[in-house]
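Reviewer 2 asked us to include a model.

Predict the structure of this chain.
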Amino acid sequence: MFDIVLARNPGESEFHQAVYEVMQSLAPLAGERPEYAQWSILQRVCEPERQIIFRVPWVTDDGQVEINRGFRVEFNSALGPYKGGLRFHPSVNLSIIKFLGFEQTFKNALTGMPIGGGKGGSDFDPKGRSDNEVMRFCQSFMTELYRHLGEYTDVPAGDIGVGAREIGYLFGQYKRITNRYESGVLTGKGVSWGGSRARTEATGYGTVHFADAMLGVRGEDFGGRTVVVSGSGNVAIYAVEKAQELGATVIAVSDSSGYVVDRGGIDLDVLKEIKEIRRGRVSDYVDAVGERARLITGGSVFDVPCDIALQCATQNE
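Predicted model (structure tokens):
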């Protein structure tokens, strides 16, 4: 079965990895259930129901026309509407989106809710772009994607590079084109315009609660532990917040420019101000807190000795 996936999806190493890992874990079950082979269940699961690739033209502040590529892989709707985030990052390609959409199908199934799996995004990089440039890109992106979405069809959310600002631009364009205020079509919106309470904190908090439950099996907890967190975006910030609430000292966070180490503990208020308000870099944290923190631009944040490491940035860390 895996050979079929390799032949049908050449060059998609990230997707190959995801399928291989899932198939390895399902092998014992498949051996006990001959009907899975009879009805090609695993082969169906590995083939997306729909793959959408489209051009996204937009205009910079100085009038230059830029072209990016957009993706939406609607992987599986056996349990309900496709559900999964949108990622805006230069690394985005079809293989990564399929990798994420495939795994999203199983993640959503574990919730016990009627939700299918999907993923989307673009190789657009919002870093360093003005609000108006991000808005124009999001509007162009949604102008194509809207026809494939709906609260009973496909419900995107945010991911890397797509926060409340981007969701707002996307939702506004969807509403403009469809002439419907369809709150259920995008998640990650602000509470005042159709969003859910605690949505912002949910992933980061959930990461720490899960790790805390694992520690609890061994009679341990976060209290007094040193923690390193990869990333400094939405997931990472609220993982830091919850770890600190549980008594841990978070000593390092990162972004694409490097990582900062603050042995006295990351100042969460400073980090939030830099990342959520100023949209700055972790190097700005060092400028803000002074000599107590240092910036390292080489290696990995996981080079920092710690008791607990939380992966909150991207896949395959």
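The chain has three domains: 1-47, 48-196, 201-311. The first strand starts at residue 50 and ends at 59. We have added this to the supplementary material.
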